[in-house]
From TrEMBL:
<feature type="transmembrane region" description="Helical">
    <location>
        <begin position="84"/>
        <end position="105"/>
    </location>
</feature>
<keyword id="KW-1003">Cell membrane</keyword>
<dbReference type="GO" id="GO:0008863">
    <property type="term" value="F:formate dehydrogenase (NAD+) activity"/>
</dbReference>
<keyword id="KW-0408">Iron</keyword>
<keyword id="KW-0479">Metal-binding</keyword>
<keyword id="KW-0732">Signal</keyword>
<feature type="transmembrane region" description="Helical">
    <location>
        <begin position="231"/>
        <end position="252"/>
    </location>
</feature>
<feature type="transmembrane region" description="Helical">
    <location>
        <begin position="129"/>
        <end position="150"/>
    </location>
</feature>
<protein>
    <submittedName>
        <fullName>Formate dehydrogenase subunit gamma</fullName>
        <ecNumber>1.17.1.9</ecNumber>
    </submittedName>
</protein>
<feature type="transmembrane region" description="Helical">
    <location>
        <begin position="177"/>
        <end position="195"/>
    </location>
</feature>
<keyword id="KW-0472">Membrane</keyword>
<dbReference type="InterPro" id="IPR006471">
    <property type="entry name" value="Formate_DH_gsu"/>
</dbReference>
<dbReference type="InterPro" id="IPR016174">
    <property type="entry name" value="Di-haem_cyt_TM"/>
</dbReference>
<feature type="signal peptide">
    <location>
        <begin position="1"/>
        <end position="28"/>
    </location>
</feature>
<feature type="domain" description="Cytochrome b561 bacterial/Ni-hydrogenase">
    <location>
        <begin position="122"/>
        <end position="293"/>
    </location>
</feature>
<dbReference type="InterPro" id="IPR051817">
    <property type="entry name" value="FDH_cytochrome_b556_subunit"/>
</dbReference>
<comment type="similarity">
    <text>Belongs to the formate dehydrogenase gamma subunit family.</text>
</comment>
């Protein structure tokens, strides 16, 4: 090595040492703040196992984004994946079994006096529009919701992972968007029917006679809606409102408050959905195959006069007093019920 080369190397080394001396304190000051507290690994582990909530730091405006997401919260996970699934299965299978038993014992509820062929208007256009909008949206919401609860265990093994993934993705979209027509229909149904659903003393007689559905030839008096229907109405209104509120909280988690509040809304959503689905299965049975002449009320908007006299005698009296003349099947429909 020549003297010239040695001198050049020494100068280079000196330059590097000088550069490090100048820049090192700045780098360490930027990266490490010895007075700042930091989360220990043990704290993270405890939080992830269901312990205290932890928050870090974020630079975006929503400070809740700094909260540690705890996927394994055991209490909520057990409720969500276990208790609610069981409740869904038990209530849906239970009501189907009860209806089958009822059908085997009682058979189809017939019009005891036979169909008269004379029709009386029962529901107007707005009532039927709101009912069917509510019914269609609820049924799809219930099926797509049920898929989220039991689909992975029940449907995926049958149709395969790919088809199940596609179906569930579309189902989730349908669930999110159909919530809105459901809420609109619920509000209309509430407004048009609430006056007919206030319990009164006529209902006591209906309860005393078991609604007349257990025995042939028993027909307790009722106005536009009997006590059983009033119970369905209030279950739909209160249950539907609870589903709507909790559903909006689930869709927009930032409105829900803390993560614990969001989890509570999810549990309420699941429990109410399971109970209301079971009630609605019974309603669909009675409104279609379970009772002769009932479907016409929502299908055509008019019912056979003998059906009306047997199930809603006081309402028929009111209609007659209002001079709403029953029509023959061939004739035009008279003044709407309301
Ligand atoms: C295919 C399904 C459905 C059928 C065949 C059906 C049938 C009927 C019928 C025939 C009535 C009138 C009964 C009468 O004249 O007294 C009625 C009323 C009613 N429906 Fe439905 N319905 C269905 C689905 C739904 C759903 C999904 C809901 C709510 C989520 C619902 C809520 C109501 C309510 C609140 C009433 C008034 C109270 C009552 O009659 O119980 N329906 N339905």
């Amino acid at each position: 090595m020549t003297l010239k080369t040695l001198a050049a190397r020494c100068l280079g080394l000196l330059a590097v040492v000088l550069l490090m001396a100048v820049s090192a304190p700045q780098l360490s000051a930027q990266q490490i703040n010895p007075t700042q507290s930091s989360v220990q690994e043990q704290q993270l582990l405890e939080a992830l196992q269901g312990g205290q909530n932890l928050s870090g730091r974020v630079t975006i405006p929503d400070q809740r984004a700094a909260d540690l997401i705890k996927p394994g919260n055991p209490g909520w996970a057990n409720l969500h994946g276990g208790t609610i699934t069981t409740l869904f299965v038990v209530s849906v299978v239970g009501v189907l079994a009860a209806l089958l038993l009822f059908y085997l014992i009682r058979g189809r509820i017939r019009v005891d006096s036979g169909l008269s062929g004379r029709m009386i208007p029962r529901f107007g256009g707005l009532e039927r529009f709101a009912h069917w909008m509510l019914a269609a949206s609820f049924i799809i919401l219930a099926l797509t919701g049920l898929n989220l609860v039991i689909g992975r265990a029940v449907i995926r093994p049958i149709i395969g992972e790919g088809a199940f993934g596609t179906m569930t993705a579309w189902g989730k979209l349908a669930h999110n968007y159909l919530a809105w027509p459901f809420m609109i229909a619920l509000a209309i149904v509430f407004l048009v029917w609430v006056v007919h659903n206030i319990p009164n003393k006529v209902d006591l007689e209906w309860i005393k006679q078991g609604g007349g559905i257990l025995k042939k030839g028993v027909h307790p008096p009722a106005k536009k809606f009997n006590f059983g229907q009033k119970m369905i109405f209030w279950a739909v209104v209160i249950g539907g409102a609870a589903l709507s509120f909790t559903g909006v909280m689930l869709l927009f988690p930032h409105l829900a408050g803390t993560p614990a509040d969001w989890q509570l809304y999810q549990v309420i959503h699941g429990v109410v959905a399971a109970i209301l689905s079971a009630i609605i299965i019974a309603h669909i049975y009675i409104g279609s195959v379970g009772m002769e002449g009932a479907f016409d009320a929502m299908g055509k908007g008019e019912v056979d006069l003998n059906w009306a006299k047997e199930h809603h005698s006081l309402w028929v009296d009111e209609m007659m007093a209002k001079d709403t003349k029953p029509q023959t099947r061939a004739g035009t429909v008279g003044t709407p019920a309301e």
